[in-house]
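Entry 14. Ran structure prediction on the chain below.
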Amino acid sequence: MRRFILRLVNVFRSERAEDELARETAAHLALVEEDLRRRGIALDEARVAARRAFGGVEQMKDRHRDARSFVWLDDARRDVQYAARSLRRTPGFAAVAILTLALGIGANVTIFTLLDAVVLKPLPVPAASELVMFYENGPEGAPDPTGGSGRYLRFSYPRFQRLEEALGSLGSMAAVTRSSLFTVRLAGATTPEFLNAQLVSARYFETLGVSAARGRVLTPEDGHLDHVAPVAVISDGYWKRMMGAADAAIGQTLIVNGVPVTVVGITPPGFVGMWTDREADVWLPVALQHALHYQNNTSSYGRYDGDSSWLGEDLVAWLNLVARVAPANRPRAIARLKTANQQGLAELAQRFENPKERTGTLAHTLAVEPLSRGFSGLRAQFSDALFALTAMVAVVLLVTCANIANLLLARAVGRAREVGIRISLGATTGRLARQCLAESLALALTGGACGALFGAWASGLLAHEVLGRSNLPVVFSPDVRVFAFALGLSLVTAVVFGLAPALRAIQVGRVAAIGTTQRQAVGQVTTKGMQSLVVFQLALSVVVVFAAFLLGRTLINFTRIDPGFSSEHLVTASFDPITSGYVSEQYAPLSRRLVAAVRTVPGVVSASASRCGLVAGCSTSSSVRLEGAEGTASSNMNWVSPGYFLTAGIPRVAGREFDERDDEHGARVAIVNESIARRYFPGRNPIGRRLGASTRGLELDIEIVGVVRDAHTQTLHEPPVPMVYFPIDQRPAARNTAITNLDVRVAGDPRQAVAAVREAIRRTEPGLLLSDVSLMSARLERDLSRERVVAFLAFSFGLLALLLASLGLYGVLSYGVAGRTQEIGVRMALGARRSEVMGSVLKGSLRLTFAGIVLGLLAATAVARYLSGMLFGVTPLDPLTFVAVSGTFILVMTLAACLPARRATRIDPIVALRCE
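Output, structure tokens:
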């Protein structure tokens, strides 16, 4: 080990070791020489004899160097030093190459950071591969009491208990709600804040394999339904951010949604919970659901009392189920769980009188899926886009490599004399190749380091844009995986763009001292190789720009969608009366007070309240029975105040709007949209027809008094859905119909009204937790955040690829013009006009451009179909995109060729003829 360490140290202390070796060698020679002189040999003869007896000095030094250090490592060090000196002599070339690589590698690091955080990175828990999630597949074709069919991710608490008992010793199961905003304040503080919190079952942390960094995690005693201990576990981030990392945090009291709870534990740093894109701050027992007024992310199988606890209600599905099961136990565990789930569905089906609903309930089947990466709303939204962007930046990096390879090829020809001299002095092909690759590696590592820093900054910027938050979950922070990716990418890049120029440098070096004709032949071969790389660059750039055009047109088409309502001069406010402590009987008076308050704001034309805001991600779906229609119809429902459609700008097609007569004492009325009218009343007037809502047992006791235009009430990405609107004052007394939105139409600049509306609400209802007040136009922009981010990135990558391709063409033409100096001089001396010379250069550029465009469009045709799921209003083989991309490349490449072409026309024939 000592010898190994000494050899390793000697690699990096070569100058000192060389001095010691020289002194030691001189001492040995002096001793031998002195011994020979004592024998009577003359001084000059003794010096020669001493060297002859000692052997070759330099050969001895080489053997000594081999013994004292690692030869290959010492050679590598020397190669790196040589590369650094070489790059210092050409700072312009080094700067251009490093900047180009930094952009290419930085773009890849940016997208990989987001892809890793959203799609690839596993949960930071032990043995994450053992985690699984459960969901139900709905019936296909059979009537379903939940209002549809498909994939159901949530379960009721009684069903969770049944499944947990069935799993038994084969694993561990836990139930968890989605992260939701709760109000949290320290005991003694007056101002609460919104924090992400989750309700979890007692074995949640045990299932994930997470222990408390301080204190303890939840235990089964914390989840007893009879006597719930009001406790909470907080995150490491919240402990440091709000409690100053105080040791006394354990045992402190937090007021969560008005309920005092005691902090019993702090999670380890980096633990974000099951939702990787929404880091939780507080975890509470599910038994506190009713006390905390939790009513989010639910689906139901029928009517239930929304004001009571859900812990014993099998009709309400509100929990995600996760389990840790070893792979060896998984088949037996799944069989047990499916049997237990069918038993639970059989008991649930007995609660329905309609045989078809019982059949639909029994048709549900339990499914299991790996959950090593946790839950993520962004994964479903952005995974396809991130994979597409990853492919785009990989292509951009290939274009970058081709560009650097062209620069190195030109540089290799310029260094032919230097390489030729070194070959004459005995340099081997391997040593020359290693030195050239060392130079490529130095460029790639420097560019990769700059690119990694740029990528870390840019990925954080994009994550902020995607999430719309100032603080990002820990999972979005660059880590060892990201920097390892940057390092590996830099090494691969160095080989990709450095190998061919290294071989060409050796080739031109071998003929450096040969006749002019052969050197010209080598130059011509180099030019053809550079032209091939340019065609390759152009083809790849065409693919990237083609994809950018398609995604850009998709964004334009989305922005041109008519949402069905007027978003101009509209301010919208979101709030949470349930979390604020309001009860069902207070919802209607609350909406009237809020509407009256904001109407006093100067410039307000009208105002209205609603259960779900427009494009707010809120929906209440259920089944309705329509007069004259067979069976039940699945539709979305909304409860709105008088004047809602006028305020929202949703045109009325027939009938009337809600007004003051539609109170709790008036006749039951409803308004439907055109989708329901067309589907269930074709060719008939729906006004005066009757319907029954599931919340009232489907009795036909509600009269349709109006028809309004279809509107994109949930998102612009989906077509309008069937909608039934009810008056707020006639809503059922249930928490799931709480008013959460206020729309305000103003006459002037809506941006100036935002603060006034917020102040009016706070002044009127100081206890109401106001989560957002913004412009409706801003909400529509947030709804298209994915398309905007993807289109922006695609445009940026397309612009970068186009720029690199134009620089590559410019470099090749400039090199070609420089190589043809004598030829062009002869032609001009013989009478060639400047326009003819310029035309010949431009023709050469157009040949390369057309070849690249044709190859690129063929590749784009094959690739574009993979983007079809992300496109809207444009086909993957859109003719206009083909024409636009081709025209763009012809124009840009022609401009890039103009400067070398003009330079060719300015060659002086006399100077050209003397250049050799």
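Residues 513-519 have pLDDT under 50 and may be disordered. Will compare against last week's run tomorrow.
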